[in-house]
Inverse folding.
């Protein structure tokens, strides 16, 4: 069996420690705060990043480009590896498209190397959880074909549920109108959103107040999760650890899943959803 390298991008919000533990190579997207580059490889400065957003500092994000991918793909190929890349939703970023361009570039030089690019149609630790399962399979000796067959069924059932604390950030990204953001702020409306089958952000419903929104994420898991005691659950948050822990406690008490992992929402995703975003990812009957 030819060895292969498992690659994802920082849209997955996997921590550096987890990527290193499971041998996952990460391609980093870019971010700026008030025109200054943000270190997306480290989560140490996240609080300062979110405090900057709270202070109305402007943010900007950048997809990974084909040259970045080509450099990583070529290194893996030159060392005799095939490549499996699991990417950020193509409906949310141009990163996956860049990987396809890089694939063609590298295959011109290494025609015998197998390069597979898989669109997870996920984001944050929803994408990360798909990558995590693939990494576990790889550690157990699974080949690329087996992993792709599993992900083709598994990824569309990776349920994403999240809420934001302030609608102004979704307004800046064109996700809601100015009127909706204003009224929502005045009435303490907290939307509950998900990532659709197509990998797009979709608003599902509204909750009145933060506590109700967090409870709503939990209720969605109760309604949709499949055999949660057999699976791993990921929770990501944008500088709201207390809410993440409260949600994890509810899930542990109700389901006792194999593992619950709480992680940070990095600046690439957080720039669009804002501080106070709380997200829940679990295996479900459907997204």
């Amino acid at each position: 069996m030819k060895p292969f390298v498992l690659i994802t991008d920082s849209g997955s919000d996997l921590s550096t420690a987890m990527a290193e533990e499971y041998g996952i190579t990460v391609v980093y997207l870019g971010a700026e705060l008030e025109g200054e580059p943000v270190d997306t490889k480290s989560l140490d400065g996240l609080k300062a990043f979110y405090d900057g957003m709270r202070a109305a500092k402007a943010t900007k994000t950048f997809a990974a480009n084909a040259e970045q991918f080509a450099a990583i793909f070529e290194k893996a190929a030159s060392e005799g590896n095939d490549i499996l890349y699991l990417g950020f939703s193509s409906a949310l970023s141009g990163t996956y498209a860049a990987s396809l361009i890089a694939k063609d570039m590298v295959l011109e030089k290494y025609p015998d190397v197998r390069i597979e690019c898989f669109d997870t149609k996920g984001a944050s630790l929803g994408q990360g959880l798909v990558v995590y399962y693939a990494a576990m399979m790889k550690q157990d000796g699974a080949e690329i074909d087996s992993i792709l067959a599993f992900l083709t069924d598994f990824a569309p059932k990776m349920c994403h549920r999240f809420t934001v604390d302030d609608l102004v950030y979704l307004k800046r990204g064109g996700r809601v109108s100015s009127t909706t953001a204003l009224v929502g702020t005045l009435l303490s409306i907290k939307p509950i959103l998900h990532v659709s089958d197509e990998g797009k952000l979709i608003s599902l419903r509204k909750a009145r107040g933060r506590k109700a929104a967090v409870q709503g994420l939990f209720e969605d898991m109760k309604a949709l999760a499949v055999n949660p005691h057999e699976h791993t659950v990921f929770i990501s948050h944008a500088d709201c650890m207390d809410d993440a822990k409260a949600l994890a406690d509810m899930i542990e008490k109700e389901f006792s899943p194999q593992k619950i992992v709480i992680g940070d929402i990095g600046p690439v995703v957080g720039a669009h959803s804002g501080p106070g975003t709380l997200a829940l990812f679990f295996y479900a009957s459907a997204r």
